[in-house]
Design brief:
The complex is a heterodimer of chains A (about 475) and B (about 450). Chain A has about 475 residues and is α/β, with parallel strands linked by helices. In chain A, about 40% of the residues lie in helices and about 15% in strands. Chain B is an alpha/beta fold and about 450 residues long. In chain B, about 45% of the residues lie in helices and about 15% in strands. Chain B is built from 17 helices and 14 strands. The longest helix of chain B has 23 residues. Classes of the chains: A alpha/beta (about 475), B alpha/beta (about 450).
Chain lengths: ~475, ~450
């Protein structure tokens, strides 16, 4: 008997933490047909990684839908160029499918290069490109030769795996750019930030901390970055990897080719941002930098603590559910919830690996449910069963939570407040507080029937709070 | 327009998206895409943004193996899991580019599934062919409507009912409005409205949240559409209303096609046709609404006179709004749609001679047209926001998608009341423009 009733094939993807042993969890396989996975496709994985490069031209070779639904949805802020906020597509039609789309693609690149003069192109392949056999690499190579700029094919046919394959395709594309421009860093302490996408301006609350320590950020991968910065990223001495799911592959490749070591960090949460600063200072072994790091940590922690305490007192003891795309963010969230006194009762990811889940099962408390590649039916049952007060996830899950009367915090592309750095954790605590403690959850879902209408035959209805206490599960998942 | 190998900022979505808008208007219906996992996730995201509702769409989750050897087993597995997980009465199967390109015969796969699977017995399954490369979301919507009646409508005893087919995408609130109008009219249960998204995309917050949202056109009503005495398609003036055509061709159900009831003339046409169909006069309260609409238009006519406006988005919606602008004495200088349609151009040019009417365009084309025509006001989906920002022209959000404002599911621009609301909004935007410029 599993944690909840679900499809047979899904049972091994849901486990409850019990005892000290790691919880074995099935993961990283194809999503079950008909189960309404929250995952997207290979193209989506590639697109989220590359899209934040603000001055690149991102061209989708495929039918219109793939470009329509990914137009400016990344939530990644820019300090300059806005080309990445446009949606470019070859809008393939029936004739292109029958006769091939290479000519149209070549034409599109030529046309767009003349019109927008981008420093580089990323050309994404989609499902049908893989099936009809357009030679994306050849078209890009020839366009690159003609135009004298990098035109990089991103091999992201949607069906060739899950989002992880897309991350890999994106990393391969980035790797082609890296090392193509020479650079002498201004500081001997030069780093890259990998897996930092500047959602809601996150980068801008992190970068100044490093700069204060005398560290130069050569390139951020890929939030608010420029093609030129990516090209010279090989000149950094250290790669800090935040979103490990999307970027560890690139970090390893850079270590191999350029000898740049990498460290896994997170910029979210007081503990995590502090240890990111310490890790960096220790890596460079500069005692003044180490002192500076401690000074920043002490100063900033003291500055935000009253704010944090105010929110902590209002959310302490509440139960949180986490459903994220990747495991790194999920793990960081567990620690951050600890910092504001909340318990995590559900934790899940779309694309976690065996190691990720092992790691997660060590850090969560007894009784926490761990889930891989969840679907709405499972999330719904789990939120009710585990008595979650809050769900942290993305847009697709937001309205499910609301329908169940569960508070919600967006930790994905749609948020508008910075969550990273010291100010970020204050924003996060505030958002968690205002949603959990909102009066909307105490509005009676069922009204009191008028006194004159109340008779023996019509008992007065109970004014319950919004659904949680009632049977929101609405029956079994699977017959 | 340039030679255009590339589309820059699309003004349309893909066919499977449109199919969902039709399938989700059937009671107890769960849609499934035959294709890769991403299609369903992206469209769920897109619709959740617009309606602010949970939107479940299944996928056959085709992988590399499926793409090479065919996706039959994935689709069958997906259908079975949807039946077991969601307990639907109806499943709408929409194909994607991938399924069509690898040549899967979905009709055949569904037939096999129905023969092989005992659990399939109670569930109606509707296959629709909707590859993105064959058309826009509007065409996908129409294709699905046609597939629905083709699969479900059955000859039976002739009935006194009439069919009201919503021929282009409108909001849940607008469907509710039409239904309440018919109720006030005394039509009661004498009609079938298809599709009915009035509840499914705008569900009340309630104690019990069902797996498939309540509401939608009942299956038996759709089956009976073959026996109605008449079909009226509203919002079918551009794409023609193939579902109604099919019912006419095969079952002899007389078919009338009208544009969307936006503005005085088009709403009069809708109301007049309903009078003919029902044999009942328009209820007095709507006569009074009509008078209030005229009153609202007169009130602001000097303020809005000649304001150069660009209207874009879905073809029917854009033309309907443009028609209203003409009635108000405004200048719909640019009319644009992502749908490739000579009929749109013909109708638009006839409605407002001298206007720039363009079809099959993207937002970069629309941007150029806006600049060329010194436009003062934009009306259309939120996807026009980059033009609004770049040119510093207000954008009045009408139509799907609307991701950056609340109330997408409660948009109301139809009928005398809806039009009155739109007139007030247009006037107020212009007031704000004038205040800002002062």
């Amino acid at each position: 008997m599993g944690v909840i009733k679900t499809f047979d094939e899904r049972a091994d993807h849901i486990r409850q933490k019990s005892g000290t042993e790691p919880v074995p969890l099935a993961c990283n396989n194809e999503s079950l047909a008909g189960a309404v996975s929250q995952r997207a496709c290979v193209y989506s994985g590639a697109r989220v990684v590359l899209n934040p490069i603000t001055d690149a031209l991102h061209l989708v070779h495929g039918p219109i839908g793939c470009a329509s639904y990914t137009w400016d949805i990344r939530g990644s802020s820019t300090s300059g160029p806005t080309l990445y906020k446009k949606s470019f597509s070859t809008d393939m039609k029936v004739t292109d499918v029958i006769f091939g789309g290479e000519k149209k693609l070549a034409g599109a690149i030529r046309e767009l290069a003349a019109r927008y003069r981008p420093p580089a192109f990323f050309v994404y392949s989609t499902c049908i490109v893989g099936v009809i056999g357009d030679d994306l690499k050849a078209v890009c190579k020839s366009a690159s030769d003609d135009l004298g700029i990098p035109v990089i094919p991103v091999m992201s046919e949607g069906f060739r795996g899950n989002k992880n394959e897309g991350y890999k395709a994106a990393c391969n594309a980035l790797f082609e750019l890296i090392g193509t421009r020479d650079y002498l860093p201004k500081s001997p302490y030069a780093i890259n930030l990998l897996g930092e996408y500047n959602v809601a301006g996150d980068l801008w609350s992190v970068k100044p901390l490093f700069e204060e320590m005398g560290v130069e950020v050569v390139a951020s991968f890929t939030g608010d970055s420029r093609v030129e910065e990516i090209q010279r990223a090989h000149k950094a001495k250290l790669n800090l990897v935040q979103c490990s799911g999307s970027m560890t592959y690139l970090a390893k490749k850079m270590e191999e080719k350029y000898g740049i070591p990498y460290k896994r960090v997170s910029f979210f949460g007081i503990g995590d941002i502090s240890s990111a600063l310490r890790t960096t200072a220790e890596f460079f072994g500069d005692s003044r930098m180490m002192e500076k790091a401690e000074e920043i940590i002490a100063r900033e922690t003291a500055r935000i603590e009253p704010e944090i305490e105010r929110h902590r007192s209002r959310v302490s003891g509440k139960k949180a559910a986490i459903y994220m795309g990747g495991a790194a963010k999920a793990v960081s969230l567990v620690r951050a919830f600890g910092e504001i006194g909340m318990d995590v009762v559900i934790i899940g990811t779309q694309t976690g690996s065996r190691d990720d889940y092992k790691n997660i099962s060590y850090i969560v408390k007894e009784g926490t449910v761990i889930i891989d590649d969840a679907n709405p039916l499972e999330l719904k049952e789990l939120l009710v069963k585990q008595g979650a007060d809050l769900l942290v996830a993305g847009v697709k899950e937001r309205f499910l939570a609301y329908k169940l009367g569960v508070a919600f915090c967006d930790f994905n592309h749609d948020r508008t407040a910075t969550f990273e750095g010291f100010d970020g954790i204050v924003n996060f605590a505030r958002e968690v507080d205002i949603t959990i403690n909102s009066p909307v959850w105490t509005l009676p879902v069922e009204r009191v029937i008028g006194a004159r209408m109340r008779t023996e035959a019509v008992p007065e209805k109970v004014t319950g709070e919004i659904p949680m206490e009632q049977n929101a599960a609405g029956g079994e998942t699977v017959v | 327009m340039s030679e255009n190998y590339a589309t820059v900022n699309p003004c349309s979505m893909c066919m499977p998206m449109g199919s969902v808008m039709a399938f989700k208007g059937i009671e107890g219906c769960m849609p499934i895409f035959h294709g890769s996992q991403g299609c369903s996730t992206y469209m769920r995201l897109h619709l959740a943004h617009h309606f602010r509702e949970p939107v479940d769409i299944a996928s056959s989750a085709l992988s590399e193996k499926g793409a090479v050897y065919g996706g039959a087993s994935n689709l069958k597995k997906g259908l079975l899991n949807v039946i077991q997980g969601y307990g639907p009465k109806v499943i709408g199967v929409a194909t994607t580019c991938l399924a069509e390109t690898i040549g899967d015969d979905v009709v055949q796969i569904v037939r096999e599934f129905q023969q092989e699977e005992p659990l399939a017995g109670e569930v109606a399954i509707i296959p629709a062919s909707t590859p993105s490369y064959s058309g826009s979301h509007e065409e996908g919507y129409n294709e699905a409507l046609k597939a629905i009646v083709k699969t479900l409508a059955k000859r039976g005893r002739p009935s006194a009912r009439f069919n009201l087919v919503i021929g282009s995408i409108i909001s849940p609130a607008e469907v509710r409005y039409i239904k309440s109008m018919l109720e006030n009219w005394g039509c009661g249960y004498d009609y079938t409205i298809l599709p009915d998204i009035s509840e499914t995309f705008d569900a009340p917050l309630a104690a019990n949240y069902p797996k498939i949202p309540e509401g939608g056109t009942p299956l038996t009503d759709i089956e009976d559409m073959a026996n109605s005495r008449e079909t009226l398609t509203v919002g079918g003036s551009i794409l023609g209303g193939e579902a109604g055509d099919y019912l006419e061709r095969v079952f002899g159900v007389h078919h009338t096609i009208l544009p969307l009831p936006i503005g005085v003339e088009q709403t009069d046409g809708f109301v007049g046709t309903l009078e003919e169909i029902t044999g009942l006069g328009l209820p007095e309260k709507y006569e009074r609404s009509r008078g209030r609409l005229l009153d609202a238009i007169v009130d602001c006519h000097k303020l809005v006179a000649g304001v150069r406006t660009a209207v874009f988005g879905d073809a029917e919606m854009a033309l309907g709004v443009a028609k209203l602008l003409c009635e108000m004495g405004m200048d719909p200088r640019v009319m644009a749609t992502g749908l490739k349609s000579p009929e749109f151009v013909r109708r638009g040019e006839k409605m407002a001679p001298g206007s720039e009417v363009i079809s099959g365009v993207d937002f970069s084309d629309i941007h150029e047209a806006v600049a060329r025509n010194e436009i003062e006001l934009l009306i259309g989906p939120f996807t026009g926001r980059q033009i609004s920002k770049a040119e510093n022209i207000p954008l009045l959000r009408v139509g799907l998608p609307n991701h950056d404002r609340f109330g997408g599911s409660r948009q109301m621009v139809l009928g005398y009341e809806g039009t009155t609301g739109l007139v007030d909004r247009i006037a107020n935007v212009i007031v704000e423009m004038n205040e800002r410029d002062r």
